Amino acid sequence: MIWQACRLAFRQKSSPQTIDLARRHKVLQMILPSELCRAERKTALPFLLQLALILLSTGWCIGCSPDPEAFAADQWQTPTEWALLMAKQEKHIYLHCQMLNDIARAQLAAGEKKQALKTLEPTLELIAKTDGLVGKNSTQESVIKTVLKLGEIESAIQTAENFTNLSLTDPIFKKIAFALIDAGKISKAVEAIQKLKNEGSAIRVNESVAESLVRDGKQQQALEFVEQIPQLNQKGAALCAMAMVYFEEGNSRQAFELLKSVDKMHEKVDDQTKVDRLMTRRDQLLTKLVNAYARGGKYERALEFTKFIKDHDFAAVVAYQSVIVALVASGDVKQALEIANKIENLKSRNHELQRIAETIAKDSGDYEKAIEIANKIQYTSIQYSTIKFAALANIAANIASKSGDYERALRVIYSIGEKENAAERKFYKKSALVYLTIGAAQSGNGEQTLALVQQLLDLGKIDPLRDSFPDGIVVHLVKADRLGSATQVIDMIPYPIIQSRLLIRIANELARKGETEEALSIAQKINENEQRDSALTLVAARLSEAGNTDDAFEVASQIKDKSEQADSFIWIASKMLRNGNKTKGITLLGKALDFISKDKTTNYRVDLEMSVMPLACEPLTKVQQQSAEMDIVTPLKKTFTPEEKQMAERLLKAVQAQ
Q: pTM of the entire structure?
């Protein structure tokens, strides 16, 4: 399960292992993206998750667990009781709740609804108080999702209405609304959304629910849902969202019928109260109406409604942006420029000129016109250079990627910063060259990539701490089957610390592609033991992820650091147990525990709990093993075999000793 990867970032280490924690974090950043992508998540560790890591590594911890000595007398009989006892050992609130959630899901998979609800009850109060640090695939959202599967919608609402973090409230209340709609309780769904304390969040959830219903072919339900929204501004926003979907589907007649019902709504909407402290309710509704009419090609009608917007500095700019985007997409650049020039705020007008220039370069290939518009960006303190640079850099990237004319692209880049001082010119050109180089690597043009890397080096030294662009370059080259060019890039960079980091990246990418021998060959080129161990850990993780657990074990056996090796063994053993290879899985877990029993410092640095659910649950069937779905839940075992029970006891003692 994904949390087993995440726990490496959360796990609190003792102070002597602070450096080790930082290294594990870097390794995890390379492991985690594939786990998240396989589960339809597209980002690796989000910013707030990294913040959680910092807090946890400095000792932030909530006492979810009683005194460890209290567990000495605890007895268990079944795998479920053992898993619950293991969850009690976890001191960090997110991981504690996630373990309980996993157990509840396994109970639910076995049809044990009452037991699952009982398991989840302690988590509801805990997560209600902890919405400050969240990220995608959050523990809070996972728990609420399980509660909804249990049919406990009211409990989900009571818990979720305490959340204040918008990254939680929006997706969770959408799930709650759909659970109620699926149960035939549309009015209850509307009422639930109205409990949101943030009006902006309520508007977004209403829009999302309405448009999703239309996409699913449930137009009548969507209308019934929207009609019951009490506030006119929220109702109008949801109708505009529905109209946008109809435009996408080519049903303009239905879209315009909906918009016609919104035309007069703004007259009755409050023009004093602000939503999300950005614009008034009335102005916000008008911007949404303008956007919808512009999307439908009714530009003049859209512009008529901009006249009613009072806030010219922000709300009117947002409305104009909608029309400009639609006009440029339709090819009417002349009118788009006319509207951009109506924007009074110079900074905002510059942004629209940038948007128009970049869109022309991307969609029409009229690079001279794009450059001409970019050069119309006017000076404002600080902003001018950045906006103009960004526009020209994007135009240059489009020239290179679409026409392959790198000489022309470089001429555009070297025209950047003509009015700025030398330091500014150097900064802008370097950033633009990085953009161009990564594009060349993505296209698999190894020769051009190397030439651009040399130009980057000629501009100045690469900062080992701040410059991460070499990582992107070598990864894209390996993805494009240009391993030779990737290794040449490493040879060009005269910094051992960067070279080791890039070799780790390459090994990881090769292992992801299934090129194990090449990955190992790259890993063995790393001189520093610590960095080489990191590379081997990644290769082993990739092999395990692909089901090649025997090969993964062989790779992990080469890791020098015993805590790193023990962690890899546990990861691989968990995969073995999950796939039904019980004998090898238990043997490998035993090896990891042997390391721990011999070295106390190793014990503090190993994440034993990742093996809990694989040991306690039934293995995946052959069909499930072949499924692309990563988050398949199987029921908890009714009993342990003697070998499993012995291993469970060893794991419990090892966790209690941490």
A: 0.80
